[in-house]
Give the backbone structure.
Amino acid sequence: MQVIFKLFKGILYAKGIKLGTLDGYERLVAAIFGTPDRVPVLLQPYIYAMHLHGLSSQKFFREPIPFIHASYNTVRYFGVDAWSPVFDFYNIEAEALGQQFIWGVQMEPAVNKGNFLIKEKGDLAKLRPPKPGESGRMPFVLESYRLYHEIMKMPPIAYCCSPFTMAALVRGLQTFLMDMLEDPQFVHDLMEFLSMEVVIPWIRTMIKETGTSMVVMSDAQASPPIISPKMIREFCLPYIEKVIRATSTPQCTVIDTATWGEGWVKNPREVLDIKMDMMRSGNKLHCMRPYYLLVWQEDFEKVGIPPIRAYAEEKKICLMLNIQPILLGTGAPEMIVETVRRLIREGAGAGRFAVTINMVPVNAPVENVHVAVAAVKQFGRYPISADLNSQPFQRPTVVSFAQWVKKHGLPIED
């Protein structure tokens, strides 16, 4: 009931009915559906949380308590509005199928490119679907989500790998691309298997076990210049629609996201339209779905923020832009402040806008992340100032992460 109250409070605030102040979750909801009090800022703790706590990748990506507690400590330390427990979600289903991965030091596991699961086309017939929730690290995912729910008092946004990107992982990207040209029927057979036998059962299990109201598939490989928009529509979108149609319910929205490449095509609208189809196809009740248009820095730097903002306004959808990871890692605080000014000046509009910190390099000073978060909070107040450049930035006081964790943090071990 608490989550439902927060949801409706955020939606009402977005429409001008203000029932008190907003917390971070309510602010994000308000930004998705209209105008919040200020631009929300999101953070994916991910490997930065692992680094700050000095954890090994084996511990962070295999043990739910260190993973969730380290992630929670990190987002609380930086004071962001919203977060999700982000692990190496591209790998979970492929690993459960039997794909080998290489585990490095303080980095996410990477697919073993010397030993792809489907070396020959005939290997597809030998595959057996994983047991959803039981195979590989699926139990780690479900227990991590349970701990998140226990701590945050609300279910998480759940993540999984899309069928197309998973196919590239188990077949090898270059070989998979050649398959699309030389044997499209094999590609369709592989996509059908991964969609119906792997992704759909896993999403259904996550929904049942976690009570999540949103599942996000990620599809980084279904992007220009890796493949063309035409190929995305032929080999990727039909299966996304199948998955969404089979799993989305009035209570749970399933979407595909993380596609990129607006800056690699003549008409960026082609990619923006694909992103909309990756959310809307197979879903119903569109007016109540928490859709958002995520555009990465590599693309909006080429295309420009104003035309992307205009597209978002045309579609009445929340625009989400990220802060460049390398800027957080090596940029001067003044550069970070000016970048945030620009994102808000050109992207915030009258609402339906959010800023995400999707990846923090492990070498990034904590001061840089604090500056980014503080800048969004200071400059992102609605209505947005007509002259943000004249507003001075108040640099936040920063205590060390070790001091903060000692006083406020959750323990990493039982």
User: Anything to note?
Assistant: Residues 84-289 form a domain with the TIM Barrel fold (CATH 3.20.20.210). Strands lie at 41-43, 101-102, 110-111, 158-161, 214-218, 253-257, 292-295, 318-322, 353-357.
